[in-house]
Each structure stands twice: as structure tokens, then as C-alpha cells.
Amino acid sequence: MASQPAQIAQIATTTPPTATTPIPPTAPASIAGTSATDPSTVATTVPDTTMSMEKMMEEIKTLELQMAELKEAKEKLTKLEVNYDKSKITVAEKTREIKALDNKVKSLEKELTLHKTPSEIKTTLWTKIGQSITDQWRSIQTIHE
Predict the structure, then answer these.
(1) Confidence at residue 68, expressed as pLDDT on a 0 to 100 scale
(2) What are the residues whose beta carbons fall under 8 Å from the beta carbon of 26, sequence distance 6 or more?
(3) 3-state secondary structure the chain
(4) pLDDT of the residue at 111
(5) Which domain holds residue 28?
(6) CB–CB of 22/31 below 8 Å?
(7) If the chain, 145 residues long, is cut into consecutive pieces of 10 residues, what is the mean pLDDT of each piece?
(8) Residue 6 and residue 26: Cα distance in Å, rounded?
(9) Are 99 and 92 in contact (CB under 8 A)?
(10) C-alpha separations of 91 from 14, 82, 85, 86, 104 in Å
């Protein structure tokens, strides 16, 4: 593409344009300027500029859509992070509650098993049973007399 202006300039300097001279196929559709032999006067065509503007507008729209999607993604990420933080706090609270309940269970188990040994429990039971038998025996004796 960079060689096209050089070819046009060479053609323009060697043969002046006339009605019988055909325009080379690589030449742009329109030439602006005061002299046909001046290579700096070759300009781009209007449709090329329009196409590039249309392409730029499409690219801008595409970028705007991508920015909108990015913004939505950031908002979703922020919401998820907030929910994650809340769930972390909830999990920590539940963990503390579980530990407190475990400690309470352990202390109650110690209270049940350590304060009264099995021999003390047997002694207490037999004392109660013996007392109840004695009470019943007295009732039987009273009825018999």
C-alpha cells in the first residue's frame, strides 16, 4: 500500500493525464489538489474516510458494551464478596457456638462421672432400698399386731 503513492507519482510525472490515458487500477478514485503532478496532492477517498468513521463508531459501541459488561461484573463481584464476608462471619459465630456447647457437654459429663464414683452410687442405691424395705417391714408389723 505504501508503494501506491510512489507509483501514482511516477505515472503522473511521466505522462500527463489526457482523455486517452487510462487511469491505473491502483490509483485512488479521487485526486484532490491544484496540480495532478504533485504527489502531495493525492488524498484519500471520501468513502474510505466514511468507512473508517463507521468502523470507529462500531468499535466505540463495542467498547461501550464491554465497559457496561465489566461494570456489571464488578457489581456482581462486590455483591458476592459481601455475601461471602457475611457467610464467613456466620460460620465463625456457629463455630463459637459449637465450641461453647462442646465445653458445656464436657463439663456436664465430668460432673456426672467424676463427682460420684460407681461405688458411691451403689451405696446410695442400697441405702435407699434398705430404707424402703425397713419402712415396709414396719408397716407389715403394725398391721400384724
Answers:
(1) 95
(2) 4, 7, 8
(3) CCHHHHHHHHHHHHCCCCCCCCCCCCCCCCCCCCCCCCHHHCCCCHHHHHHHHHHHHHHHHHHHHHHHHHHHHHHHHHHHHHHHHHHHHHHHHHHHHHHHHHHHHHHHHHHHHHCCCHHHHHHHHHHHHHHHHHHHHHHHHHHHC
(4) 75
(5) 1-43
(6) no
(7) 52 49 50 50 54 88 95 94 89 92 88 70 85 82 78
(8) 11
(9) no
(10) 87, 14, 10, 9, 20
Residue 49 shares a structural domain with residue 105: yes
| pLDDT score for 31 | 47
Task: Please give the pLDDT value at position 40.
Answer: 52
Which residues 6+ apart lie within 8 Å of 132 measured at CB? none
Same domain? For 54 and 100 the reply is yes
Are both 101 and 128 inside the same structural domain?
no
Number of domains the chain contains: 3
Q: What is the pTM of this model?
A: 0.35
